[in-house]
Structures are given as C-alpha cells and as structure tokens.
Amino acid sequence: MSFATIELAREGRVGIIRLNRPQALNALCDQLVAELGSALDDLEADENIGAIILTGSEKAFAAGADIKEMQSRGFVDVLVTDFISKGWERVATCRKPVVAAVAGFALGGGCEMAMMCDIIIAAENAKFGQPEITLGIIPGAGGTQRLTRAIGKAKAMDLVLTGRMMDAAEAERSGLVARIVPAEKLMEEALAVASRIAGFSLPIVLMAKESVNRAFESSLAEGIKFERRLFHAAFATEDQKEGMAAFVEKRKPAFRHR
Ligand code: CAA
Predict the structure, then answer these.
(1) Cβ burial 68-86 (10 Å sphere, 16+ → b, else e)
(2) Chunked in runs of 10, what are the mean pLDDT values of the chain (258 residues)?
(3) Which atom of ligand 1 approaches the CA of 68 most closely?
(4) Catalytic residue check, 152
(5) Residues 6+ apart with CB under 8 A from 229
(6) Domain boundaries, the chain
(7) Has 65 been annotated as catalytic?
(8) What separation in Å is there between the alpha carbon of 11 and the centre of ligand 1?
(9) GO biological process: what's one of them (predicted)?
(10) What is the pLDDT of residue 138?
(11) How far is it, in rounded angstroms, from Cα 156 to Cα 159?
C-alpha cells in the first residue's frame, strides 16, 4: 500500500511508521490521520510484526493538528463530524506496543499522539508542549488528560495554561519520556527497544501492555485483580512453558509468539 503523508517500513518483527509532511512539520491533517490508521491496521493484522515505532523527522515528530485545515471550521461542524475522535484515538487503541521516537517538535496533537504511544524515546533536541491556548482553543486529543496523568497537575497546568514548551531533559525528569538519546542514535535506540519487545511472546506482550494500561482506568484493587487474572492466564500459553524451561536449561527461549 502506498501513502502520501507517511512512510511504512518493516525491519524484522518491527513495523516503522514515519510521519512525512516536512513542508508542514508533520502537522496532523485529516489525510495523515487516516493513513496512519490504515498503516496501524496493516501492522496489527500482520502476525510477523510484534512491535511498532512511530516517528517523524529530525525537526518535528509532529507540530500538532493542521491549523490551516482547522482554521475555518465552526462549532456545529466539529461537533457533528466529531472532529478529533475519529481516527485520532487509533494509536491509543493499537494492541501491539507502540514506541514513539521523538525528535524536534512534539506539540499539541503531536504531543498528544506521542502520549498515546506506550514508550516515548526522545532525542536530545525534542520539545514537548500543548500550545493550543495560544490559538484560542484547548487540547483536544487527550492533552489535558494524558499529560496530567503522566506528569502530574502542577506541570500539566503549567504547560497547558502557558503554552510553553519543555525540552527533553525536563520531559524525562517529569516522567513523560522513558529515555533520552543523542539525535543521531534515536532510531537505533528505538529499533533496539522495539525489536527486544517483538522478540518476546506476543500474547504475553499484549497482556503486559493491557495490564499496565488498566492502571489508568481502574482502582488499585480492581487493577490488581485484573493483573492476577492475566498472570494466571499466562500459564495457559506454550510460551510460559518455553520461557521457564529455557531458564532452567540455561538457554535462550524460542517463543512461538502466538
Ligand atoms: N499546522 C499547519 N501548519 C503548520 C503547523 C501546524 N500545526 N505547524 C507548522 N506548520 C507549517 C507552518 O505554517 C510553515 O508553513 P509555511 O512555510 O507554509 O508558512 C511550516 O510548517 C514551517 O513552520 P514554521 O515556519 O512556523 O517553523 P518554525 O521553525 O519557525 O516554528 C513551530 C516551528 C514553533 C513548531 C511553529 O511552526 C508552530 O508554532 N507551529 C504550531 C504549533 C501548534 O500550535 N500546535 C498545536 C496545533 S492545535 C492542536 O494540535 C489541537 C489538538 O489538540 C489536536
């Protein structure tokens, strides 16, 4: 399948999606969001893919929703078409792990899209922010919600109300970013992380991701119960037998993935 606003590649068991609208700093126009959705559909359905990387360019992961596309829209239009809901949440609903490899600007919808991923790896030049307030709107793809859960109320209020950017170091200190690497090492690191994940048992990886995400949606007691059920279910897989046998026999496990 060919795309106009993204590039899709496969490297081993890793699917790599690169946002590719350099003339607009990867602003997330409707076409890009639709193409991103179909690339994720492809990769999710592909049994040879165990993890996905979402990345942009050296200058921008994504500078937000496309302001030029939004500029003339009105309340009734965005309400009736449910603008942002459709397509945008596709990254968050992906069941396979998604690693965001972020260099340059991750602003507005770009920051929100990175936060829909499971692990954010940032280049040293990465900049995160929710500048919507400067445009006379508020974040609309989870910025007030996921950011607050990720970095707490004090920092989230600071970013959302002032529209300022935070650099990679502050983002890591705040808990938004998992790792920072030199810009030239970004894809190497993201690929190493995604390949490592993709080498594990896919059903177990799916369970682990689902269980961590449950922490955001439930009380501690419910979350623990959910985790326990999945933990028990892991013992029904061949990969549990293989993983434990390999440990005891002092060899590398050969997971079946399915
Ligand atoms: N939408 C549309 N076009 C954008 C864009 C966006 N979000 N961000 C950048 N561009 C375009 C610029 O208009 C410019 O195009 P032209 O050459 O045709 O003028 C091109 O990309 C390069 O941008 P700049 O010349 O501005 O580059 P810069 O290096 O001087 O500045 C920047 C970079 C600070 C990121 C600046 O482009 C900027 O502030 N962008 C907008 C960031 C923003 O406000 N994002 C939030 C969008 S709203 C949103 O995302 C809502 C939501 O919650 C879903």
Answers:
(1) eebeeeeeeeeeeeebbee
(2) 94 98 97 97 97 98 98 96 90 97 98 98 98 98 97 98 98 98 98 98 98 96 98 97 98 90
(3) 2
(4) no
(5) none
(6) 6-198, 201-249
(7) yes
(8) 31
(9) fatty acid beta-oxidation
(10) 98
(11) 5
How much is the pLDDT for 86? 80
Check residue 254 and give its pLDDT. 96
- CA 66 to ligand 1 center in whole angstroms: 8
Q: What is the pTM of this model?
A: 0.97
Task: Write down the pLDDT at residue 229.
Answer: 98
In this structure, which long-range contacts are made by residues 79-83, counting pairs with CB atoms below 8 Å and at least 24 apart in sequence?
Answer: 83/140
What value does the CA radius of gyration of the chain take, rounded to a whole number of Å? 19
- CATH class for the region spanning 201-249: mainly alpha
Q: How would you list the strands of the sheet with 119-123, edge to edge? A: 6-11, 14-19, 51-55, 98-102, 119-123, 179-181
Q: Write out residues with Cβ below 6 Å of ligand 1.
A: 24-25, 27, 63-68, 84, 105, 107-109, 112, 131-132, 135, 139-141, 143
Q: How far apart (Å, rounded) are the C-alpha atoms in residues 153 and 147? A: 9
By three-state DSSP, how is residue 53 classified? Answer: strand
* 94 in Cβ contact with 40 (< 8 Å): yes
Contact present, 112 and 54 (Cβ < 8 Å): no
Q: What is the CATH number of domain 6-198?
A: 3.90.226.10
